[in-house]
Amino acid sequence: MGKHNLSTKIIPTNIDYQAFLHDRVNKYLEEYVASNNKIEEAIVYALTAPGKRVRPTLLYLVSDALSLDLIKIDSIAAAVEIIHTYSLVHDDLPCMDDDEIRRGQPSLHIKYDEAAAVLAGDAMQSMAIEMLINNNFVDGQRNIELVKNFLSTIGSKGMILGQALDIEYESREADEKEILMMCELKTGLLIEYCFHAPLMIANEKNEHWKRLAKIVGISFQLIDDLLDLKQSSEILGKKTQKDKLKNKKNYPQMFGEEKTLSLLKKYKSESNLILAEMNLEEHILCDYINNLFKRKV
Fold it and tell me: What is the phi/psi pair of residue 11, to 5°?
């Protein structure tokens, strides 16, 4: 856990800010998601698993840095977490990565069955979009733009394409540029959206924010790939070494641990420089991003 006394505009100071933000998005999810049938029960099972809530946390922290009322962000934070969770549910299926453990418990298709996992994932997509559309705290036209950006982020030219390339590269070679692009598409874009959405609401876009979002998004996937190689299933709450077994063309598999760590060091330095240039080095966003880079690899 990082420091809790860093400069902040909206989020209460001198608290466990991560727990505060996790509780905020969890309460929103609890109010929105019911358990009236098997598919809804499966959705609740997936969403209440002990996840890190990285994406909602980034959304809230960027919003705080921009002095946005967090009530404008609640539905977006929940929608992003739902989409991330659906992507894990489908990624775990036998036809994809075939994982039996997720977040320290049986994957959804193991707990229920494959059909339930497919349908629950499908339902989560529409649920997330409905949440965004019903966000009455952002004016109509701007909210339409938020939804359009969200759909392009998670669709066939975004996250879905990245997942497809991840599978395609199991059976063919890929160069460094292709691997980094895959990282951005399948993982980075949804994290980038967590920066872009508050910026769109605040009508404040600039190249510093855009570059920071890209760095954080790609770095998160690079660290995940390293963790898969180095950590145990017990620590990560999911099967490890699976990328090597399935001939996944991720960055450390292709170019080595040393080069991956060197690239991450470069990205971390650049992110801190950008945060300093935006006068955010004392904001909890800076603290949180640095903690993301410190995940045990």
Answer: -65, 130
Task: Mean pLDDT check: name the lowest of 161-175, 243-257, 277-291.
Answer: 243-257
CB 232 within 8 A of CB 104: no
Which whole-number Å values give the CA distances from 122 to 40, 43, 89, 163, in the listed order?
Answer: 11, 10, 10, 16
Q: What is the Cα 247 distance to its own chain's centre?
A: 24
Q: Which residues touch 108 (CB under 8 Å, ≥6 apart)?
A: 42, 45, 46, 89, 92, 102, 116, 117, 120
Tell me the chain's radius of gyration from C-alpha atoms: 18
Q: Which amino acid is at 227?
A: L
Q: What is the DSSP letter of 105?
A: E
Q: How far, in Å, CA of 185 to CA of 163, rounded?
A: 8
The beta strands (E) that lie in 77-215 are given as 101-102, 105-106
- At residue 241, the pLDDT reads 58
Residue 13's pLDDT is 79
pLDDT exceeds cutoff 70 at 239: no
